[in-house]
UniProtKB/TrEMBL annotation:
Superkingdom classification of source: Bacteria
Associated pathway: Amino-acid biosynthesis; L-histidine biosynthesis; L-histidine from 5-phospho-alpha-D-ribose 1-diphosphate: step 5/9
Listed name of the protein: imidazole glycerol-phosphate synthase
InterPro entries membership: Aldolase_TIM, His_biosynth, HisF, IGPS_HisA/HisF, RibuloseP-bd_barrel
Keyword Lyase: yes
Job description of the protein: IGPS catalyzes the conversion of PRFAR and glutamine to IGP, AICAR and glutamate. The HisF subunit catalyzes the cyclization activity that produces IGP and AICAR from PRFAR using the ammonia provided by the HisH subunit.
Provenance organism: Pendulispora brunnea
Subunit structure as annotated in this protein's UniProt entry: Heterodimer of HisH and HisF.
C-alpha cells in the first residue's frame, strides 16, 4: 500500500499566513518562512501553499515567497492561486515548486490542466475543487469561494481526470476551519468519480479526523487549523496513523 501523506496547508494573503472559517474571517497566523522552517524540522511529507487573493486581485506573490521558503526546506512544495498558463507554472517550478494546484483556472480555462500535464507531467498537476453542499449535491465554487458555478462535484472530477490532472484536491467550504471533521460524503463522491489520488481538505480538528479521511478513501489528508491552533504537529499525526495501521513516512 502506498504511504499516506499528511499535508499542512499554508494560506497566503500578501506575505503572511492566514486562516479563517468557511473561507471568511481570516486571521493572521504567522510568517510563511518561519512556518516552513518549523514544518521542515518536523519532516512534513509536503507543504501546500495557496494564495487566496491571487484570483481576486489578479496578482500573486507565490513565486517570490516560494523562492524564499525553498531556501529553508527541502520537502516537496505544491502551490496554487491564480494559475492559468504554462508560463506561470514554469516560473513557479523554477522558484522551487514541485506541483501546482489549479482551481479557478481549471474551470475558467480548463485546457490549462492538459497543457501543464503534457508539458510538465501529470504528477505536477493537482486539480483543486472547492465545493459547498446544496441538498443532495455539491456545487463547485471558484475565486476563493466567492463565485458559484453550475458545475457539480462528480462531473467536474471526471472532467479534470480526463484533462490529465495527476491528483484531485477536494475542499469543503462548509467545513473549512470548523475543525469538526472532513465532509466524508463529499470525499466518497470524489473518490468514486476517479482513479486518481484524492486529497481531502477542510475540517480536520483532531487525528481521528485524519484517520476517518483515509478510511473513506483519501490518499492524503490536508489540514491547516489542526496544526495552526494547539500543540499538534505532523510527527504526532504520523505516529497516530501508524498506530491505527496506515503506512506513513518513516523518519
Amino acid at each position: 500500500m502506498l504511504k499516506r501523506r499528511i499535508i499542512p496547508v499554508l494560506l497566503l494573503r500578501g506575505d503572511r499566513v492566514v486562516k479563517g472559517k468557511q473561507f471568511t474571517d481570516y486571521r493572521d497566523t504567522g510568517n510563511p518562512v518561519m512556518a516552513t522552517r518549523v514544518y521542515n524540522a518536523q519532516a512534513a511529507d509536503e507543504l501546500l501553499f495557496l494564495d487566496i487573493e491571487a484570483t481576486v486581485t489578479g496578482r500573486s506573490r507565490l513565486a517570490e515567497i516560494l523562492s524564499r521558503v525553498s531556501e529553508e526546506a527541502f520537502m516537496p512544495f505544491a502551490v496554487g492561486g491564480g494559475i492559468r498558463t504554462k508560463a506561470e507554472v514554469r516560473a513557479l517550478i523554477a522558484a522551487g515548486a514541485d506541483k501546482v494546484v489549479i482551481t479557478t483556472g481549471a474551470v475558467e480555462r480548463p485546457e490549462v490542466v492538459s497543457e501543464v500535464a503534457e508539458t510538465f507531467g501529470s504528477q505536477c498537476v493537482i486539480a483543486g475543487i472547492d465545493v459547498r453542499r446544496e441538498g443532495n449535491r455539491y456545487a463547485v465554487y471558484v475565486r476563493s469561494g466567492r463565485v458559484r458555478t453550475e458545475l457539480e462535484l462528480q462531473d467536474h472530477v471526471r472532467k479534470l481526470d480526463e484533462l490529465g490532472a495527476g491528483e484531485i484536491l477536494v475542499n469543503s467550504i462548509d467545513q473549512d476551519g470548523m475543525m469538526g471533521g472532513y465532509d466524508l460524503d463529499m470525499l466518497a463522491r470524489a473518490v468514486e468519480a476517479t482513479n486518481k489520488p484524492v486529497i481531502v481538505c477542510g475540517g480536520a480538528g483532531n487525528f481521528r479526523h485524519l484517520e476517518e479521511g483515509l478510511r473513506a478513501g483519501a490518499h492524503a489528508v490536508a489540514c491547516a487549523s489542526l496544526f495552526h491552533f494547539g500543540d499538534n504537529n505532523p510527527p504526532r499525526a504520523r505516529a497516530y496513523l501508524k498506530n491505527v495501521g496506515f503506512p506513513v513516512k518513516t523518519v
